[in-house]
Amino acid sequence: MTSARVNEQPFFTAVSGSARQLFQLLKCINFAQKAQVRITEEGLRFTVEESRVIQGIAFLEKTLFTSYNFSPRPGSQAEDDEVDDTAVFQISLTALLETLQIFGFNEGRDRWASRDSAYGGVTGSLARGGPDAAFENRTLGMTSMCQLSYAAKGEPLCIVLKEAGVTTTCEMVTYEPEDQDEIPLQRDALAQKIIMRSSWLHDAINELASTSPSRLTIAASPSAPYFTLSSKGALGSATIEFSNDQQLLETFHVPERTVNTYKYSLVRAASRAMAIASKVSIRGDEQGVLSLQFMIEVEEGRVSFIDFRFVPFLPEEGEGDEDDEDDED
């Protein structure tokens, strides 16, 4: 950091009483190495994408932190004298997660240590304890302080971790942001909106894995069968149906039948969020874009949201149907 910046107030500082809480939320979108970070007055927005067909967005609201200071100033992100109210940069998400867990995990308490590695290390203990249990102090097994700070454009993201009298300071390199457009969801032209317990969606996605599928077909209809997930792969085919029972589907708004297909491995990338969330809102627009928005209960009765967007699979002209393609795979 240059001497001119030493006496300046950092662009951003925040303190959290739980490094593990931040780790668990950001781990939900850990399907690519880099994340784009946007710092605003309202909180931190982490966006991860892959090949423009999947996006994962974790928004850490300022209420998740015990203190949150945001001090935009002229020249922080813009080259003119206007005050910019955001800071945008890229970081290594892999390195950030390694930093947040630098004090280690207690395997006996860690809900991600698992024999079920194919689904991101989610164990049956989560189902027994409930999704909110993943964030209880007893479960987290650590009382730590995590401070984040960002001095100015081009400076490192500084992370200070304190636990049991031990302090660790890490400076993470920040990179120039990329042009990153959000996968558009036409909220005024939704073809379906379904809200259900996230654990049921998680169980269904896991059940379909037995066929080693390459595609996942999601169908919704105002009449039976109301909501179905189907897959076909090298080991066979499977279909899971959900009835339109309010105890099962809390919200069900489907004006007409819709059927869309997505790459199974991409949807499965959201399985960690499915496992720890209490509810999921399944929305799809008329273009077939799928949004899975997860409500995750954190400490002190607060909630946080993780949003995944998926672009539908569109076969090229002259390409065989899904069954033929799966057989070739």
Structure in words:
The protein is of the alpha+beta class and 329 residues long. Helices cover 18% and strands 37% of the residues. The protein contains nine helices and 18 strands. A hairpin with a 3-residue loop joins strand 2 and strand 3 (43-50). It starts with a helix and ends with a helix. Residues 76-81, 105-129, 137-142 and 317-329 have low confidence and may be disordered.
The number of helical runs is: 9
As a percent range, the share of helical residues equals 10-25%
Which stretches are low in confidence, meaning pLDDT under 50 for 5 or more residues running? 76-81, 105-129, 137-142, 317-329
Strand content: 35-45%
Structural class label: alpha+beta
Overall mean pLDDT score? 83
Shape: elongated
Major sheet: size, sense and barrel closure? 9 strands, antiparallel
Rg of Cα set: 21 Å
Tally of strands: 18
